[in-house]
Amino acid sequence: LGERWKFRTTLGTGYRRPTFMDRYIDWNHIQFGYQVIGNPDLKPERSLGFTAGLEYYSPQIYRVSVLAYVTRFEDMINDYAIRPGYLSYQNIDRVLFRGLEIQGRWTVSRSMLARWGLNWVDNRNSDTGDLIPNTQPFTADGSLSFRVWKQRVDGTLRFKWTAPYHPQEYVPEIGDFVTSATPRSSFVLWNLTTTIHVLSWLDIHAGLDNMTDYIDNHYGPFIGRRFYLELRTNLQGKMP
Q1: Backbone φ, ψ for residue 222 (5° rounding)
Q2: Of the candidates 209, 200, 199, 201, the residue with the CA atom closest to the CA atom of residue 229
Q3: Would you say the pTM of this structure is higher than 0.90?
């Protein structure tokens, strides 16, 4: 639509069979203290989706886009808690996903790129009108990527913010999910990754996940701050 506007739309169908693991495999995730139990009665999942989006961009500088989508599911495969510490899978008859995404990208300089996004999600059981468990209606995310020291060091700082929402919890006595009367507070998760290009065939890769050590023992994340260090080699880099 002119030199700086783009309009996109899609229409598609989906079909997903439950995996062998979803149906028949029981396994114990000992380190995290829970078990997953297969459900042999799972049915295939079918869906029909539509999206429409509008984008405005300035070449090499910035880009802003808005995307709306609607997806209808039949027999959607969803995980749930049978009781505390025991998880499984179930089919939900009719489900409607709706959402709106606003995203932006800004080339700050030749060595720095910023991205951001805002998301609204409304995933509901069409029969009951209830939100699908684990739906987080409002979230925002962003990242700042950089490359310094003659492009020998690059990295990315990322964050994800989740707004307050009323989570749903599985109540074994009634065999269904119940919306919590107390909302979960908003929270932010920060991750940092960086790579040092030492030689043409050797990189040092390091990362710091959950930088602020945020832990929620009831809803997660259950793992706090985590640091990792990797050596990556490219044997082709040593070849003439």
Answers
A1: -95, -15
A2: 209
A3: no
